[in-house]
Amino acid sequence: MTEKNATRRNFMKQSTALAAAAGSDAGLSQWPASQARKKKVLWNEMARHEFPALLENKPVVIVPVGSVEQHGPHLPVDNDISIPFHLAVAAAERIGEFPVIVAPPVWLGFTHYNMGFYGTITVRLETFIALLSDVCRSIYANGFERIIVMNGHGGNVAPVTAVANKLAQENIMTLSLPYWDMCKEEMTTWSTKDGRGPGHAGEWETSFQMYLRPHLVAMDKREAGNVRWPFSPATMKYVHVPERRRECPNGVEGDPFAATAEKGEKIFNLCVERLVAIIRDYHDKPLLRYLDFGSDAKVLPTLF
Asked: Looking at the whole model, is its pTM more than 0.90?
């Protein structure tokens, strides 16, 4: 038993040394996830006695939402939660005049159509809606009334909107958006291959990861995608086609060979700039209330 433990310890030491060396080579100190925090912004790093003071100046809480799912042969499976998380942290650190807190990420997403490949973890639609609703209710019950749900996964777009509409009836007003809505035009204009964004493990998502976490991008395993759509472009322009299995044989939509760290940095900084503006606007404006116009409709009972 002692010999086995010694072997395990040696393996862990070697792994740690290799990871540190890889991190040094990649220049990880440049990226938000590995920096020492400029200030406390993570909900999960707070002690309970620190929360009441945060409530004194109209704080904003960002809930990063994403998924853990296959992203082709070259990207990590946490791509869709890592991007909104990094954006949220960077934006929160830039604002000093009022508290901006990043909630623990909701990494479970609605992504059954990626189950054709290893690494994907999905939940049922009803489970996702219930989970995110209860997370937002909990934040609200703690006294935080300004909540932004920052989504990084395409399959979550409709469910996140449904959650916002559902919670509004309980007088919980959330702002919800997928991060790419803040940079959709630029993704199209700045693209050199895909012509749009964000795709799936293609030009833009690969660019994000090459900037944020280059040590996790398997450059030698990149493959361009070949999307198979079931109908003509004219039909696809108007109809919604539910996701089944990911409509590409290798799980990639777009061309990761067009990705660069420079593109990733440029689009990341643009998104942070626009997220900061959204947060400030949310902080400065009065809160919307469900009964603002005098309706006497009964609000459904909540969890609390």
From this structure: no
